[in-house]
Amino acid sequence: MARSLLLLLLPSLAAARYLGLRNQGNTCYMNSLLQVLHHLPQFRSSVYDMPTSINCTAEEWMPLELQRVFFELEHGSEYGVVDVGTERLTKSFGWGPEDVLVQQDVHEFSRMLCEALQARLQQWGRRDCVSALFEGTISSVTRCTKVDFTSEKVERFCDLQMQVHGCSSLQASLREFVREQVLSGPNAYNTRREDLGRQEARRGVRFKTLPPVLLMHLKRFDYDVSTGDMRKLQSEFKFPTLLRLHRFMRERPAQGDPSPTYVLYGVLSHVGGAGCGHYVSYVRPLGQRQWYEFDDTRVRPVLEEVAVRRQFGGGHSQGGGMLGMGAAPNAYMLVYVRQEEALKATEVDEGLLPSDVRKHFEQSLRRRRKR
Question: What Gene Ontology terms describe what this protein does at the molecular function level (predicted)?
Fold first, then answer.
């Protein structure tokens, strides 16, 4: 009986160790993304490994404050902290009091944060951990239909833009993503050869390489030509917890190469309309079965039904006020981790954090406990 009770309490005990982030006004988009990134051991290790200092320059301030947020999320509960603030982090972005009151798009913020980290890593002469985790390549092959001419263009991506309009599932959106195009007439392919000129052709897209962590942005916001305004697509869009991408690869993986199979790790959800709304993130920490909801300062264990299936969308706004709360929540970004990566050890080597920085963070937490 006692053992059964303990098993029931385990998710709640785990949630008690996870801390939330305070909302500064309209920073739920930032909070939801930071929770997803923090719980990725590979990303947290990379952030801790940045050569920061408590006597940092202005350019180094942002990485230092990101380290602080991650450290307090991880250890704050040991010092009696109940939630974590982001005021110093947003100041390091150059934001003032008015900026934190403006609702931003979480996908755009994700790109801004990653690009800022990449720029700092380049200045330090350090390995680009952002690209190492999130970057893949797409192969676009064009084949002329009437002459023997083929060309390939390889492009990099750090996230994938997945069509929602006209697609009821991620699989349908992937099929649309790789659907072969016919190039003819005014759109005929320019071979850039004098003897061939423009030719009818077919162009197909496939994945050439895939990253350890796959970020997918669901294009739920689009332009409504009838009104001239942006609108949010509330239609149902299903996505799996196990994603197999074998059929979308340019070539079969060679023996010993990572398999293109991914497990769902995180869902960033949005409720509301195109003008405003609220972001919440759902995370299943690697090595666990339990999903958790991170809604600013509120952290709670939830069923997979809540974290996944309820985020498919399909509801419609009933005029529920400023946030359009009559609308169902919709997944807006999906985070998949390659199966091999998900099975690896999930411990983070905190020895990577510069010793003076760690000591400074610990002293700061002790002072907060004494208050």
Answer: cysteine-type deubiquitinase activity
CB atoms within 10 A of CB 89: 24
Out of 28, 114, 158, 167, the active site residue is 28
Q: Is 225 left (phi over 0), alpha (psi -120 to 50) or beta?
A: alpha
Token representation of residue 241: 């917890």
On whether the CB atoms of residues 283 and 266 are closer than 8 A, the answer is yes
Measured between alpha carbons, how far is 251 from 170 in angstroms, rounded to an integer? 21
The C-alpha R_g of the chain, in whole angstroms, comes to 23
Question: How many Å apart are CA 183 and CA 363, to the nearest integer?
Answer: 64
From the candidates 165, 278, 316, 360, which is the catalytic residue? 278
Contact 365, 79 (CB under 8 A): yes
Tens-digit pLDDT profile for residues 250-264: 888 777 788 899 999
Q: How do residues 318-340 score in pLDDT, each as one tens digit?
A: 333 334 444 679 999 999 999 98
Phi, psi of 50 (to 5 degrees): -75, 135
Helix, strand, coil % over all residues of the chain, rounded to 5: 35, 25, 35
CA distance 51 to 73: 20
- To the query of whether residue 278 is one of the catalytic residues in this protein, the response is yes
pTM to 2 decimals? 0.89
Partnered with residue 264 across adjacent β-strands are 336
